[in-house]
Amino acid sequence: MPSRHNTIASRRLGLGLSLGFSLGLSLTLACGRADQGVGQAQVPTSRPAAAAPVKPVEAPVPEPVVLPEPDLEKSLGNFNMTYYWVAAQKKSGGEPIFDKKCKTIARVSKSFKRRLSLEGTGILKDGRTVSRAGACKCGAPCYWVPEASHKWGAGVGQRPLSPFRSIAVDPKEIKIGTSLYVAELDGLTMPGSGSEGGFVHDGCVIADDRGGGVRGKQIDFFAGRKQHYKNFFSRHKLTK
Fold first, then answer.
1. Tens of pLDDT along 6-39?
2. What is the pLDDT of residue 135?
3. What distance in Å separates the CA atoms of residue 16 and residue 167, rounded to the nearest whole number?
4. By CB distance 3.0 to 4.6 Å, which of 13, 136, 150, 180 could disulfide with 142?
5. Above 80 in pLDDT, residue 91?
6. What is the pLDDT of residue 60?
7. What region does 88 belong to: left with phi over 0, alpha with psi -120 to 50, or beta?
8. Cα–chain-centroid distance for residue 212?
9. Of 155, 173, 157, 159, which Cα lies nearest the Cα of 215?
10. Binning pLDDT at 50, 70 and 90, where does residue 149 land?
């Protein structure tokens, strides 16, 4: 015959299980209080007082973000500033221009060939862009025809040129690929529109090209088109 102690323990356990199914958390609370029995559930006789309405909290107004000034490593000093652009073929001629395999790309006039050699990039009458590819056995320099992604030609290592962003430099003074800040350009509106210009410059340029006639402290500013150069220079006369 079970003792009274065992009977009470069994009844307490049974009540705990029953409350566990009806109240959800009772079994867990009972198991956590092994030194006490589980009493009968207290059924509320009246509804609890309604909670006071919560006033909406306005979202905090974020403080304006202040961007830091560009982290300029050092000043490179004063440089002379010249300009270059894409040479445009206007008439045919008998002078051949070659690729690196000495195949003829086109025949052009002597004046265009000289201009192409100076500028490094040109647009042929048929719409193709040609860029300098360096010296070759069939005559210096040789050229190549870039893809559409190089609309304005290519600089060193086939870096695409961009009007009013690319500059040609002397690699002994400035490493190719270096980003530079030219204070005199900051705030000036560039001629043209779309991919050719028409924006207010922030002074940032990239050394994308090596100029054949660029020596020492000189940068050659790429204007894209000759007319853009004329418009810009007539307005600003920027040479340093």
1. 433 333 333 333 333 333 322 222 323 333 333 3
2. 79
3. 84
4. 136
5. yes
6. 62
7. beta
8. 30
9. 173
10. confident
Q: Cα 182 from chain centroid? A: 20
Among the listed residues 130, 133, 129, the one whose alpha carbon sits nearest the alpha carbon of residue 157: 133
Which own/partner pairs from 146-153 qualify as long-range (CB within 8 Å, at least 24 positions apart)?
Answer: 151/195, 152/86, 152/121, 152/222, 152/224, 153/86, 153/120, 153/121, 153/122, 153/129
Burial 146-178 (b: 16+ CB within 10 A, else e): beeebbbbbbeeebbbbbbbbbbbbeebbebeb
- Dihedrals phi, psi of 43, to nearest 5 degrees: -90, 120
Place of tokens 């719409």: 127
Q: What is the pTM for the complete model shown?
A: 0.66
Instruction: Check if the beta carbon of residue 83 is closer than 8 Å to that of residue 224.
Output: no
Structure tokens at 105: 């790309």
- Rounded to whole angstroms, the Cα distance separating 207 from 171 reads 9
Three-class secondary structure of residue 40 per DSSP: coil
Which of these, 131, 92, 126, 132, lies nearest to 109 by C-alpha position? 92
CA atoms within 13 Å, Cβ hemisphere of 212 = 15
Answer yes or no: is pLDDT of 194 > 80.
yes
